[in-house]
């Protein structure tokens, strides 16, 4: 990405992040061990749910909820029920199957983290999005793929994520792509199935027309998520109060010198390095009845 390198950061927590996890997530040896033991006990009562018996896997559900097993278990169940009931957004969710959206640059993980350690994602919903080439369903699959893979990063588990939605050039034809069905499916995933700490959803360059789209989502929002949605419009300083300047692309008012044109093939090729892991992931979940 220009002079920057994006990679999934799978390294263990450093001393600073260990302290942050202790202060914000009550992460101690005792709470971790109790959370893991309690989650394993809950899973014994759900034999039809196929997940690996693995501390590293469990951490992406437990750490964001302060190692409390029950809410982690509920999110896990919601996620795998969602995958069964929403196959259009879930089946074969791998880089090879989602080459078009990853190559388009519509969904991009940014290479620099926010000042608080959050992973940032850029979603191009305006002039750089052609619905005839990349459908909304494909866009949600792309968002799921990059944000869910980031949950294997210990730092992202601790710090959370921000999503920046660039709506410059948003048109009526794009607005008409949004339906109540899509709004419900997207928010069901965001609010009930995504185990990460969502710190902010930022609408940037959002025109008045976008209000029509947001009206589909507004009645379905929980109070918690509603408080984390920001409408910045063209006020770049408003965005920079929440997201670090060094992590925001230049054309949005920051200092991050990344290509405006789609990142394209290199991003897709990078995720293809983890194709086998994605293929194993899609096998998880509730056993299908014959």
Automatic annotation (TrEMBL):
The residue ranges crossing the membrane are: none
Tell me the leader sequence span.
none
InterPro entries for the chain: CRAL-TRIO_dom (IPR001251), CRAL-TRIO_dom_sf (IPR036865), CRAL/TRIO_N_dom_sf (IPR036273)
Q: Which SMART domains match?
A: SEC14
**Residue ranges annotated for the CRAL-TRIO domain, each copy included:** 95-260
Q: Where does this protein come from, organism-wise?
A: Cotesia glomerata (Lepidopteran parasitic wasp)
Question: Could you give a GO molecular-function term held by this entry?
Answer: phosphatidylinositol bisphosphate binding
> What protein name does the entry list?
CRAL-TRIO domain-containing protein
Q: Which PANTHER family match?
A: ALPHA-TOCOPHEROL TRANSFER PROTEIN-RELATED (PTHR10174), LD41874P (PTHR10174:SF220)
Which Pfam family is one of those matched by this entry? CRAL_TRIO
Tell me which GO cellular component terms the UniProt record holds.
membrane
């Amino acid at each position: 990405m220009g002079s920057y390198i994006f990679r999934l950061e799978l390294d263990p927590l450093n001393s600073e992040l260990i302290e942050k996890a202790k202060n914000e997530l009550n992460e101690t040896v005792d709470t971790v061990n109790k959370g893991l033991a309690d989650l394993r006990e809950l899973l014994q009562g759900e034999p039809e749910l196929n997940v690996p018996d693995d501390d590293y896997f469990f951490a992406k559900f437990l750490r964001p909820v302060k190692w409390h097993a029950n809410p982690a278990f509920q999110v896990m169940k919601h996620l795998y029920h969602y995958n069964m009931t929403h196959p259009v957004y879930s089946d074969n969710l791998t880089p090879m199957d989602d080459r078009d959206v990853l190559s388009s640059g519509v969904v991009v993980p940014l290479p620099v983290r926010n000042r608080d350690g959050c992973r940032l994602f850029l979603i191009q919903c305006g002039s750089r999005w052609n619905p005839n080439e990349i459908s909304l369903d494909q866009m949600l699959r792309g968002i799921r793929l990059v944000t869910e893979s980031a949950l294997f990063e210990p730092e992202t588990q601790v710090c959370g994520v921000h999503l920046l939605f660039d709506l410059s050039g948003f048109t009526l034809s794009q607005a008409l792509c949004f339906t109540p069905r899509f709004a419900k499916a997207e928010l069901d995933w965001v609010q009930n199935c995504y185990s990460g700490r969502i710190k902010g959803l930022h609408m940037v360059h959002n025109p008045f027309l976008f209000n029509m789209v947001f009206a589909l989502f507004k009645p379905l929002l929980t109070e918690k998520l509603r408080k984390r949605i920001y409408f910045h419009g063209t006020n770049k300083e408003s965005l920079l109060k929440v997201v670090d300047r060094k992590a925001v692309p230049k054309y949005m008012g920051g200092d991050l010198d990344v290509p405006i044109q789609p990142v394209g093939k290199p991003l897709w090729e990078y995720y293809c390095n983890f194709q086998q892991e994605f293929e194993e992931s899609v096998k998880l979940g509730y056993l299908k009845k014959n």
